[in-house]
Structures are given as structure tokens and as C-alpha cells.
Amino acid sequence: MRKLKIDELNRLSTDEFKQADKLPLVVVLDNVRSLHNVGSVFRTSDAYLVEAVYLCGITSTPPHAEIHKSALGAEFSVDWKYFEQTLDAVAQLKAEGYTVFSIEQAQGSTMLTDLQLDPNGKYAVILGHEVKGVQQEVVNASDGCIELPQYGTKHSLNVSVTAGIVIWEFFRGLSPLNSR
């Protein structure tokens, strides 16, 4: 077995990415403070053709050297918008026909392993502050909560790790490319 070289990976250019069909998923960051987490979410969103990333509240926006360090340029390929209030992002998404889920441990949440996706649906997932999680008012405005099963001693995962797991599951459930 031989590792592939970068030029053998046949990756899209930024222009090709902009024109490509996207996964009907918007990732919303609700007051995420770590610039490395923001950059990592951009990078994962690029990898799985996520439609857009919405940056809300205290979440920093590109251009920023610390975001770029983790994003490796994905902040240029993935569309993004900034909202001062996360509730405004949720309202816009709902008006555009998206089903909006907060990624949060909550009463009545759906385990990610039990999530049933409509292949014709449009979705948004909200990831919250590294300590406080998704704001309660944002959880209240969501169509539901998705929870990741965890079995160890810690009660949460890093935001960018959670984003990677959730984005992958939506890609598996919605993208025709996942059968490659």
C-alpha cells in the first residue's frame, strides 16, 4: 500500500467547490469562542460539501490568522454569514424551509444514532459555546435536539469534534456521494 500524493487526490479547486452541488446542511456556531474550533468547522464543512456556516454572537469571522491556521483555506471555499443574534439565523433558516436542530443534551433529545433524515429535506445544526453549550432560547426555537451518545466519564466532546461527527452523519444520510 502506498500513500497518495496531494496531486493524486483530485480535489476540487475553490471555484469548482463553489459550483458543486452542496449537502443541504447549514452549520450554525452559537457563540463559539475558540478560533481553532471555528477553523476546524470550516475545514470539515469543506470536506463534506456543507452548504454554509453561520457564525453568530461572539464567534469570530474570517479573515483571521487563527481561523486560517485550522481551516487551511476552507474559509474561502465554504460560504458563511455572520449574525449578531443566533435567533435571527434560526428565524431565517426556518423561513427558508430548513429543519433546525440544536446539538445539545436535553430532555426529549434524539440520539444521533436514531436520527431519521428526509433525503429531500434541508437541515441546520447548531453547535454552542464550549462551556455553556447552545443558548436555551436557541434550543427553544429549534425543531429538536440531537444528542451524541457518550459512555465515558466526561459529559461533552470538543465543539469541532462534535461538528465532525454530526456533519459526517448528515453526509452519510443525505449525500449521493457517500456511496463512492
Automatic annotation (TrEMBL):
Alphabetized UniProt keyword annotations: Methyltransferase, Transferase
GO terms assigned for molecular function: RNA binding; RNA methyltransferase activity
Database matches in SUPFAM superfamilies: alpha/beta knot (SSF75217)
GO cellular component: cytosol
Any Gene Ontology biological process: methylation
InterPro entries, sorted: Alpha/beta_knot_MTases, rRNA_MeTrfase_TrmH, SpoU_MeTrfase, tRNA_m1G_MTases_N
Organism domain of life: Bacteria
Entry keyword Transferase: yes
Keyword match Methyltransferase: yes
tRNA/rRNA methyltransferase SpoU type domain ranges (all copies): 25-167
Name of the protein described by the UniProt record: SpoU rRNA Methylase family protein
Originating species: Paludibacter jiangxiensis
